[in-house]
Amino acid sequence: MTDPRKCPFREPPGDRIAFEEPLAFGLWDAFPANPGHLLLVTRRHVPTWFEATQEEQAALVNAIDTARAVIQERHRPDGFNIGLNVGKAAGETVPHLPALFGLPFSIAVWNAGFVVRPGHIFLLVTLDKSGKGSDFQYRDHFLSPTLFQWESQNRTRREDAHGQLIRSHKEQGIPVHLFIRKTAKQAGKGAAPFMYCGNVDFVDWEGEKPITVRWKVPEPVPKRLHEEFQAGDERP
After folding, report:
1. What secondary structure does DSSP assign to 111-131, as a single string?
2. Would you list the domain boundaries of the chain?
3. Helices (H) and strands (E) in the chain, counts
4. Residue of 174, 172, 178 lying closest to 213 (CA atoms)
5. Fold (CATH) for 4-84
6. 232: which residues sit within 8 A by CB, 6+ positions away?
7. I want to staple 59 with a disulfide (CB 3.0 to 4.6 A). Which of 23, 48, 127, 223 is the partner?
């Protein structure tokens, strides 16, 4: 993220701050992949590791030991993972989705695949629907690296409010944000994070209840991810 005003780490709630140091601080993840999921953040806003100064990078590395001690005291884990992902192709994800857009989190709102919030539409797509009931077997998949096919909820019709919003979102100036993950959970690691594919544009649609919609992705999905996301391509 390049705009400091929209940074979700700018003014975190006090109960999420695990520890503070002069150039960096530890922040409990708002949507942890595991108990003890902790983020290390520079006090100065920088988009990625590579824009941080040498002093800030050193502070982040040194903060790992402090983070380990804090996690150990609170959660007593059997082991630790230390990771850094920079860029979509490297697996960088957006686990703090509502906060990134300045929106409050409510499980009643965000525990859905189609989320409408003021000025935004979010498509939260889990490709592997195994374990879901027949009412949730939407056939979502990439037709190409720049074209994604998505099925609406079974009750959605073209002429209803959501249908018209899907069709005319661009004319109304409402961006549609596409987030994708292959599975709902990671083996032994809790909920899987979503991958942000950018703002997509309506191309065309067909059918009713559900509606099959094709969306244009702003940039080609990297080959590795395109192949991985083909899990949703098979028909029942």
Report:
1. SSSEEEETTEEEEEEES--TT
2. 4-84, 97-232
3. 5, 12
4. 178
5. HIT family, subunit A (3.30.428)
6. 125, 127, 128, 129, 139, 140, 141, 142
7. 23
Condensed to tens digits (0 to 9), the pLDDT of residues 210-227 reads: 999 999 998 887 777 777
Contacts of 131 (CB under 8 A, 6+ apart): 184
For residues 122 and 198, what is the distance between their CA atoms, to the nearest angstrom? Answer: 10
- Cα–Cα distance measured from residue 167 to residue 163, given in angstroms and rounded to the nearest whole number: 6
Mind listing the pLDDT tens digit for each residue in 88-112?
555 555 445 666 676 776 766 777 8
d(CA 147, CA 221): 9
Q: Taking 70 as the threshold, does the pLDDT of residue 46 lie above it?
A: yes
Read off the pTM: 0.58
Which tens digit of pLDDT belongs to each residue from 132-147? Answer: 444 444 578 898 889 9
**In terms of DSSP bridges, do strands 185-186 and 114-117 run parallel, antiparallel, or are they unpaired?**
unpaired
Strands (E), 93-230: 114-117, 120-126, 141-144, 147-151, 176-181, 185-186, 190-191, 195-206, 212-216
- The whole-number average pLDDT for the span 56-81 is 90
CA 150-198-119 angle, to 5 degrees, is 85
d(CA 202, CA 233): 20
Residues with Cβ within 8 Å of 175's Cβ and at least 6 positions away in sequence, in order, are 119, 120, 121, 169, 199
